[in-house]
Specification:
This is Histidine ammonia-lyase. One of its GO terms (biological process) is L-histidine catabolic process to glutamate and formamide. Keywords: Histidine metabolism, Lyase. Pathway: Amino-acid degradation; L-histidine degradation into L-glutamate; N-formimidoyl-L-glutamate from L-histidine: step 1/3. By secondary structure, the protein is mostly helical. The protein has two domains: about 5-195, Fumarase C, Chain B, domain 1; about 205-305 and about 345-505, Fumarase/aspartase (Central domain) (Fumarase C, Chain A, domain 2, Up-down Bundle). The chain has helices at about 10-20, 30-45, 70-85, 95-110, 115-130, 145-155, 170-180, 190-195, 200-230, 240-245, 250-260, 265-270, 280-285, 285-310, 335-360, 385-400, 420-450, 460-470, 485-495, 500-505; strands spanning about 5, 25, 85-90, 130, 135, 160-165, 170, 315-320, 325. The chain has a three-stranded antiparallel beta sheet. Strands 1-2 form a two-stranded parallel ribbon. A two-stranded antiparallel ribbon has the order 3-5. A hairpin with a 5-residue loop joins strand 8 and strand 9. The longest helix has about 30 residues, at about 200-230. The two termini are about 25 Å apart.
Length: about 500
């Protein structure tokens, strides 16, 4: 599938297809015409004796200097070279490709004033599977994700380094030549247009929301398995109870759990008049309230992301009536806030998951299960340390939930005196989402053992199928084994979506 970049915004599915499935890209004829039309405006201003920011001046605190025509190619090249100042580990390939596509989408809007050849250079890099090396640090989330985008632009100039589709590190000039691509020589305004966007933080947001869609469903699966394995009740998830507090996400999560537990002989076994249990612990009873609030927060973040996808972020920008105006749309606050908000959500989802896991392991709270789910408690430790792993991750996620967007360090000689730190919010959310997947996978691993130990009582068809899929990779209860590979297998199944698909194969799509 080729993703066509038009004058309008790209969608979530387009970003994921290019970032993670290497879908090729093409610039539509309408976008090409819009790009060429706005370039005529920039060419006219380039020949005007009146200084225009980004066209015939320096940048940032150096914007007061008028740059003569003969120095402007060097000006644009120097801008990219000096701003490609990132440091630290390499950023993940999918995040970089998402950023490249989003920058190309803004170029295709016809509001940045670049030449068509410059936009085509980005399409060429994406289609060739060449991914510029971008580093962890360098963006403050204002004036765009400057350093990350500059490293991408540097590759288009034939400088710096890229990773091939196979992951090999190659000098950009050599990689371009090997794929028949020409390096770009930048003209007036183009350097700014390539780096002055929120594309890095936005790409991270789109990918994080995509992953959270899957992990929210997995959270419901894990919680249902824990309810079952710990002899809790499903009555609290009834639709009429949810209607008393009409948060939409809560209703979805409760409906998911009701469907997942339908037909469970384990749940039915204690749904009798002689059951002395009055209420379950909050981590079981309130699972839909927490997962539902997470869904509603993600929905808000998605709305922000969709508005940002429809935005043209550049400074200066070519307006629809042909003016070239400075503006502040590059400030990353809208994206930074929701990135931080999602980090809070991720930490709390992981926290309640860890509490459910811990209940399985405590003989005083597990309702008849052996200590730590061990085969021979004392000789065996069962899942004792798996919970330690969860606890360590949850503690880290709490630290990552501290908002980056409340921080600001002035830069550029106080010209850029308030910045968003959205890139930092994006990077910590990336790590947080990875941590959540591991925490939920450990809960499923532990709950599956608890469910198995309830036999001969059978689980619900949906949760039982999840256990069956897990058992294709991880053996059931027994003496202690090397546990790390089993956790890794469960994490792999969680991240691939296999655990959720197993339940959905039985009961249909989850909300």
């Amino acid at each position: 599938m080729t993703v066509t970049v038009d004058v309008g915004p790209v969608g979530f599915a387009d970003v994921v297809a290019v970032a993670r499935r290497d879908a090729p890209v093409a610039i539509s004829a309408r976008a090409a015409a819009a790009i060429e039309a706005s370039r005529t405006t920039i060419d006219a201003l380039a020949n005007d004796p009146t200084p225009v920011y980004g066209v015939s001046t320096g940048f940032g605190a150096l914007a007061t200097r008028h740059i003569p025509v003969e120095s402007r190619t060097q000006l644009q090249r120097s801008l990219i070279r000096s701003h490609a100042a990132g440091a630290g580990p390499e950023v993940e390939r999918d995040a970089i490709r998402a950023m490249m596509l989003l920058r190309l989408s803004t170029l295709a809007s016809g509001r940045t004033g670049v030449r068509l050849a410059t936009a085509q250079a980005y399409a060429g890099l994406l289609c060739a599977g060449l991914t510029p090396v971008v580093h962890e640090y360098g963006s403050l989330g204002c004036s765009g994700d400057l350093a990350p985008l500059a490293h991408v632009a540097l590759a288009a100039l034939g400088e710096g380094y890229v990773r091939t589709r196979a992951g090999d590190l190659v000098a950009s000039a050599d990689a371009l030549a090997a794929h028949g691509l020409q390096p770009v020589t930048l003209a007036e305004k183009e350097g700014l247009a390539l780096i002055n966007g929120t594309d890095g933080m936005l790409g991270h947001l789109v990918l994080a929301l995509t992953d959270l869609d899957d992990l929210l469903r997995l959270a419901d699966v894990a919680a249902a398995m824990s309810v079952e394995g710990q002899l809790a009740t499903d009555r609290v998830f009834a639709a009429d109870l949810q209607q008393l507090r009409p948060h939409p996400g809560q209703a979805v999560a409760a409906a998911n759990m009701t469907r997942l537990l339908d037909g469970s002989a384990i749940v039915a076994s204690h749904r009798t008049p002689d059951c002395t249990r009055v209420q379950d612990a909050y981590s079981l009873r309130c699972a839909p309230q927490v997962a539902g609030a997470a869904r509603d927060t993600a929905a808000h973040a998605r709305a922000v992301a969709e508005r940002e996808l429809a935005s043209v972020i550049d400074n200066p920008v070519v307006t629809l009536d042909g003016r070239v105006e400075s503006n502040g749309n590059f400030h990353g606050a809208p994206v930074a806030y929701v990135l931080d908000f999602l980090a809070i959500v991720v930490a709390d989802l992981a926290s309640i998951s860890e509490r459910r896991t811990d209940r399985f392991l405590d003989v005083h709270r597990s309702h008849g299960l052996p200590p730590f789910l061990a085969a021979d408690p004392g000789v065996d430790s069962g899942h004792m340390i798996a919970q330690y792993t969860q606890a360590g991750i949850v503690s880290e996620l709490k630290r990552l939930a501290h908002p980056a967007s409340v921080d600001s360090i002035p830069s550029s000689a106080m010209q850029e005196d308030h910045v968003a730190m959205g890139w930092s919010a994006a990077r910590k959310l990336r790590r947080a989402v990875d941590g959540l997947a591991t925490v939920l996978a450990i809960e499923v691993l532990t709950a599956a053992r608890g469910v198995d130990l309830r036999r001969p009582l059978a689980p619900a068809p949906a949760t039982g199928r999840v256990v069956e899929v897990l058992r294709e990779h991880v053996a059931g209860p027994g003496p202690d084994r090397f546990l790390a590979p089993e956790i890794a297998a469960a994490v792999g199944l969680a991240r691939s979506g296999a655990l959720v698909r197993a339940a959905e194969d039985v009961i249909g799509p989850l909300g």
